[in-house]
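For the sake of clarity, the format in which proteins appear in this thesis is described at this point. The record quoted next illustrates the convention:

___
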Amino acid sequence: MLLAAVSDLHLGQPFNLRAWRGFLAYLRTVRPELLLLLGDVLELAWFSRKELEAQELFRESLDELRGFAASIETLYFPGNHDPRKKIDPQMVAPVHLLPFRPDMPEATEFDGVLYTHGSQFDAGTHLWDALLKFPLKAVFPCVYLKLYGTPYEVKSAQKEQDYREYVGWIMGRAMMEAIRQGRDVVFGHTHAPMTLDLGGRLIVNSGDLRDSWSYVLARDGRLELKFWRPA
């Protein structure tokens, strides 16, 4: 199976619709059998469904995704910004919401590779965010983005000295999960695309489709982190 996996669009925040259209057009030429959305596709942590649907940019961006899913099977695995309980499957159809699996509640498997959003590797690192930044995100999201930038912008500019340590901590927990499961692991969440090779066992962060425009291509379980550059 040829599978593409992407993460972290955060539709509802300011978004590059032209680049999104270009990426989907490019992905059609790759012709994956399956597109796997690894969460944080909709910004339901900051906005209600009603507020999202009132945004023309959101509606157009979601329409582009629906159009893609009409011809290439697309599965959606929720993240921490779009929890399952807040997603109406009819809102994203023909994108399919991945069924909940009690034996694997935060992940799914294809060709022996474990795919997940990755927020479960982030336990205990968001106290600062919850106490100080989240109120600003919730009330004035555009002001927050202007002050702090997107996560990938923060990493790239090293505006926060502990960002690399933060990403490293999460990659470390993903590494432990890969060892425990005996499988390669693909996840998003951190907006920091990278690959870690543990001597044949891979941990791949898919990055995001906001700043890095990165994705994972898996052919029969063989993983490759790739980048698409907007024109």
